Amino acid sequence: MFSSSSSLTLSQAILTRSTPRHHHQHHLSPPSLSLRRRRHLSISASVQTPPKPSTTDSSLIDKSVNTIRFLAIDAVEKANSGHPGLPMGCAPMGHVLYDEVMRYNPNNPYWFNRDRFVLSAGHGCMLHYALLHLAGYDSVKEEDLKQFRQWESKTPGHPENFETPGIEVTTGPLGQGIANAVGLALAEKHLAARFNKPDCEIVDHYTYSILGDGCQMEGIANEACSLAGHWGLGKLIAFYDDNHISIDGDTEIAFTENVEQRFEALGWHVIWVKNGNNGYDEIRSAIKEAKAVKDKPTLIKVTTTIGFGSPNKANSYSVHGSALGAKEVDATRQNLGWPYEPFHVPEDVKQHWSRHTPEGAELEAEWNTKFAQYEKKYPEEAAELKSIITGELPAGWEKALPTYTPESPADATRNLSQQNLNALAKVLPGFLGGSADLASSNMTLMKTFGDFQKNTPEERNIRFGVREHGMGAICNGIAHHSPGFIPYCATFFVFTDYMRAAIRISALSQAGVIYVMTHDSIGLGEDGPTHQPIEHLASFRAMPNVFMFRPADGNETAGAYRVAVLNKKTPSILALSRQKLPHLPGTSIEAVEKGGYIVSDNSSGNKPDLILMGTGSELEIASKAAEELRKEGKAVRVVSFVSWELYAAQSAEYKESVLPSSVTARVSIEAGSTFGWEKFVGPKGKAIGIDRFGASAPAGKIYKEFGLTAEAVVAAAKAVC
Amino acid sequence: MFSSSSSLTLSQAILTRSTPRHHHQHHLSPPSLSLRRRRHLSISASVQTPPKPSTTDSSLIDKSVNTIRFLAIDAVEKANSGHPGLPMGCAPMGHVLYDEVMRYNPNNPYWFNRDRFVLSAGHGCMLHYALLHLAGYDSVKEEDLKQFRQWESKTPGHPENFETPGIEVTTGPLGQGIANAVGLALAEKHLAARFNKPDCEIVDHYTYSILGDGCQMEGIANEACSLAGHWGLGKLIAFYDDNHISIDGDTEIAFTENVEQRFEALGWHVIWVKNGNNGYDEIRSAIKEAKAVKDKPTLIKVTTTIGFGSPNKANSYSVHGSALGAKEVDATRQNLGWPYEPFHVPEDVKQHWSRHTPEGAELEAEWNTKFAQYEKKYPEEAAELKSIITGELPAGWEKALPTYTPESPADATRNLSQQNLNALAKVLPGFLGGSADLASSNMTLMKTFGDFQKNTPEERNIRFGVREHGMGAICNGIAHHSPGFIPYCATFFVFTDYMRAAIRISALSQAGVIYVMTHDSIGLGEDGPTHQPIEHLASFRAMPNVFMFRPADGNETAGAYRVAVLNKKTPSILALSRQKLPHLPGTSIEAVEKGGYIVSDNSSGNKPDLILMGTGSELEIASKAAEELRKEGKAVRVVSFVSWELYAAQSAEYKESVLPSSVTARVSIEAGSTFGWEKFVGPKGKAIGIDRFGASAPAGKIYKEFGLTAEAVVAAAKAVC
User: Fold this and answer.
1) Neighbours of B448 (CB within 10 A)
2) Partner A, chain B 629-668, Cβ-Cβ below 8 Å
3) What are the TM regions of this chain, as residue ranges (chains A, B) (predicted)?
4) Cα angle vertex A441, ends A437, A445, to 5°?
């Protein structure tokens, strides 16, 4: 399930990947980069490309744009499922971005310094697949387009970074993508400030995103965009596909706010492209203007017609999320003058786009040369940056983790967590993060660093404000920027409810975000039931690809961080106590990776009279109860279930050694819902927990009233024995 | 656990409650109401009250405001826990609201036509408790203030409507309160449009709210406020406590957007009160201006000093969430010239506030008279309105529920749900709701009604736009406006992740919202893993006070609606299929209230060879497998677990009759996480489910690839038998 090597995605290591591509460079016409750069800033409709200048007239661009439209139409039609409307409307901006503006290498989708593109309106993914196909990405060949939305295809129903190289993040749930884009742009700004030198700009890319009306309505988008404005992410350029249509009809029925004014209020530069359907020059000059504004992110509102070209369905919700139908496909072919078979890319369009493969290789090669020079001049910085780019963990990093003995002073696991965060900050170059306005409660400040802010972007403490959902999605973006980033974020455990959609995308998209979730139970006391998690442990134990840790003391906290850092493809949630806990004999950093293990035992032959189980702050209670029962002559085993997921991955033999099936006298205690504990306590055991909401009172009083005491465990043990 | 009578909160019935208060009216100086009304609009600092005009000079107001401040300081100090900063800063606006502006009856906190107040910044609840105390509410007496944040007190750490009469909704999780306030204001606008007559304005109240920087940062607040602007909720007046401090320090570090401009963009009227610390006249005239703007909600930005009066802690985060400490309390007493003992309310302040009890009784009595006239003139409307006010369900409403037989055409439960919604819309006057831009997918439109919009607020289909979180919280507000409201809201089941914090508050605050959640599994097919719920059933089964229904067909869908409508204090979530399902022999509307029940069985003597269990779309698969196995001579029972919570509430005898402990051969099938099924299948059984993320492909293909088939059930059954 995890190993230290799993954290290194070799395919993402620049130096290894770029080497085999070098031979491509020899095919390149030399001036591509500088020409491309000039082109970015051009407002002329005529786009000059080295191989075939004659092919860049505006009719070819129309043809390219229509190719994108029909690839989307045809794929949705063949699948009889999908969303043709957005690709048809956004094809022009998509074309300008991928053909004229963006810098990328189709042969290495993971090239570090590439421009990032996020389709926040992920349902329109056929736009992105069509663009990747035209640009020459191996991941989206014609047969992949024909397999749109089919079992195990590279072209699933929404963009999934883990399925399709060239897709940066996983979108579809609205608003997530633009927040990811904020994270990607933050990562660029941070790395640029940290590593660029006056004589060598080694980090330098833009982040582009397309979002629709749906994304704009979602609160998460406002949270993330407010932060983007606050941070002055000048290299974030977002296109707002303003098509006036959402699933329920005209946006008039639910969305009449002034989006431009709102974004200005959020500190963005705002541009309006009135003709997004074929105003290529307008789109180009908007991008030029956006790039010229360096201290603010830019929103380019592009007014488009959803389903552009469909004579009977354009500008209606019916084109949003269903195939056009054979008849309307024909009518659209007629209307746009498209005589070709489904999935056909006309030869001149193909040729026009073909330059991106050699040019991309050239871009990467040029950057590699630059990096080699950088490495010579600045070996230390280069080593740090390389670690972030490749995800390779520095040798011996684990030694930085603090260790504890039973004699160490009792402490809250949130404080012990802070010791770990500070230790890791010193050894992991890509470690950064912060809290949703609870840094002093979550104990998440790294003492060796200042605040990441507009004018101090090289720092690593991120101040997210009270924006949990945006925070989670921004961290997903950071994690997906480069394999060596290990972002963490924090709030009270109960407020994972605010960011659950982002946490789920961490899990699905394999973003190794670390969620530092303090105040993990009724143990927080007086704030009461609105602040006391009950069902949250169970709710994450049921979620795929998440490590839900509830460490009991210092060593378990360090052990949880160790597993979290080692597993870059699985997010970790640490539920941490507000209240002080003793360091228990029998816990260890290493044992955490088993998920469940024996903490203490006075039985022999794997035949205890009784097994007591607990997690986090209740492991102490279980241990106390065991002491009592042992005094009475019982052979009692105490088991910590610090991570159910890791335990589930152990062998049947190991599990039998921890929970022998012959021992049915079992009691668990955890200050949360008992839901799911039946698995461990079995039909004859007893699960002590909380199957109601909490209460406002001092923590000790609630524990007592709710029956979470050693006495209750002893009584339950006697009842089940 | 539920009964039809539980849905009627008798204490909330206006007519019964108002009667015993009538004798108070005789003590009233007659002109109180008209005087009060004039006062609302007065910008003079001098507030005249009938009993003691001389007590209304500004020094008395200062004294009243300081009383509020010190009640908060003293309660937090005694508890050594809580948030004194906000009450100290917001005491002036609190005073003006409760003493001069708001119309309420302390002796009947549930009087229907009262102005509503929501403290969205719920951590500052001592402000609200102090105001309720001064205003004469029984629920907050001096001894209650002294029990602040203690076990079973009426003054918990955050405002809880179910603990403290006078508190409208449950706040604390930031942003929820302002969204609840939008729901309360929507409810008023809807009822006023529906029931007011040119000669009788029977519904007429304002909704006030105080929100802080934290609420402003939360995405949910932007969602709800965008809708409030869209709907033109002119009687919603929100105070933004602009104090520049959040927990992590100055808001400068994370929150530099232009809030006023954002709210203007959202369609609000915005006013800035520059001196919130003692600018009473500014506050008064802002409220006057806000009331004059009838087509827009108003945001009054009130610049205050957090912890006003504390010489060493004011204007710092240290006063936000901790007791001042004895020394600083003394210093603050010195500074504000407060010679009194803790919890003391000076006699003149007490006397000044004492008029609210008789005046409130007068207000209610006057309204009751008005209602009696209304009832005479408009008996039908009055009966409807009364049903909404009292929560009494119309006799025989259950007969409206559709019923089905195995011969009824197979259909998706989302469509069957729509039949129920339309049936209930006809018989339940307080039934209203809508979808987050998925009405045509969730099948939630009520055909007999139009859209609730700015200019058609009497209609009942609510268009929430893509704002799931705001939608949930707005529905909580509607539910808490009047006991007869039954709001429903809808999106895809997976997007409960976006609104989970609001659903949790439904559960905690006992808001009987109905969550219509369609596309409930991999059965939605091509949209893929971002859209396919896996862990969601388990995550809600673990949440207290929620009914998590997964109906299998028409009768179970109707049965789920029946339980949902009958249980106003428990929210219900209905997980509904996108795909068609047959109507199974053996299901019934009535059986649903048992939560788990036998659908079919060919055994005798409660001794089947095997028990197959399922929910929703997989009950059909379990039934098919049972047929196969019966053909092979097995005695097989099929059990539907449509609601685990309802099953858990059944007697041990009933449970033994469904799942006899002697039968350990048990197989469950559900297209979701197997987490929690161990409880029913036991250690010797087998749970078939999905413990990974879904996939993008046609639904049938995914079911087959994931092993959710009758063949797999048969094979598992043979393995466990």
Assistant:
1) 11
2) 661
3) none
4) 70
A544 and B693 within 8 Å at the Cβ level: the answer is yes
Confidence of residue B56 (pLDDT cuts 50, 70, 90): low
pLDDT above 70 for A56: no
Q: Would you give the DSSP letter of residue A429? A: T
> Which are the contacts of A226, defined by CB distance < 8 A and separation ≥ 6?
A266, A267, A465, A467, A470, B217, B255, B257
> What is the model's pLDDT at position B30?
31
Task: Say yes or no for a CB contact (<8 Å) between A171 and B440.
Answer: no
Alpha carbons within 13 A on the beta-carbon side of A710: 12
Q: What percent of chain A has pLDDT over 70?
A: 92
CA distance A438 to A496: 13
Do the beta carbons of residue A537 and residue A575 sit within 8 Å?
A: yes
A219 touches chain B (CB under 8 A): yes
Distance CA A234, CA B39 (A): 51
pLDDT at A28: 27
pLDDT in tens, A354-398: 999 999 999 999 999 999 999 999 999 999 999 999 999 999 999
- Contacts of residue B265, defined as CB under 8 A and 6 or more positions apart, other chains included, come to A257, A258, A259, A260, A261, A262, A264, A265
* A675 → closest Cβ in B247, B258, B542: B542
Q: Contact at 8 Å (CB) between B471 and B220?
A: no
For the record, the structure tokens of B606 come out as 């409660």
Helix residue ranges per DSSP H, B256-299? 259-265, 280-292
Give alpha helix (H) positions in B517-634.
536-541, 554-566, 617-631
Instruction: Select from A578, A522, A573 the least CA-distant residue to A550.
Output: A573
Secondary structure of residue A63 in the 3-state scheme: helix
Contacts of B210 (CB under 8 A, 6+ apart): B90, B93, B94, B118, B119, B120, B121, B124, B127, B238, B239, B241
Catalytic residue among B77, B168, B468, B645: B468
- B214 CB within 8 Å of a chain A CB: yes
Which residues are within 8 A (CB) of B116 and not within 5 positions of it... i.e. 6 or more apart? B168, B181, B184, B188, B205, B206, B207, B208, B481
Q: Judge whether B468 counts as a catalytic residue.
A: yes
Residue B164's CB is within 10 A of a number of other CB atoms, namely 22
- Note the pLDDT tens digit of each residue in A299-314: 999 999 999 999 999 9
Strands B461-463 and B451-452 come out as: parallel
Q: What are the chain B neighbours of A435 within 8 Å (beta carbons)?
A: 248
Contacts of B175 in chain A (CB under 8 A): 466
pLDDT at B247: 87
| Residue B663 phi, psi (nearest 5) | -95, 105
Question: Cα-flanking dihedrals φ and ψ of residue A606, to 5°?
Answer: 55, 35
Strands (E), B233-320: 236-242, 245-246, 249-250, 269-273, 298-303
Summarize the confidence of residues A556-580 as an average pLDDT. Answer: 98
A234 annotated ligand binder: no
Assess whether pLDDT exceeds 80 at residue A258: yes
Longest dimension (CA), chain A: 93
Q: How large is the ipTM?
A: 0.93
CB pairs under 8 A between A and B: 353
Residue type at A410 in one-letter notation: A
Q: In what order do the strands lie in the sheet with A666-669?
A: A597-601, A636-640, A610-614, A666-669, A686-688
From chain A, the residues in CB contact with B459 under 8 A are none
* Helix B379-390 / helix B176-195 crossing angle, nearest 10 deg: 160
**Encoding tokens for residue B257?**
């957007």
Across the interface, whether the CB atoms of A693 and B545 are under 8 A apart is answered yes
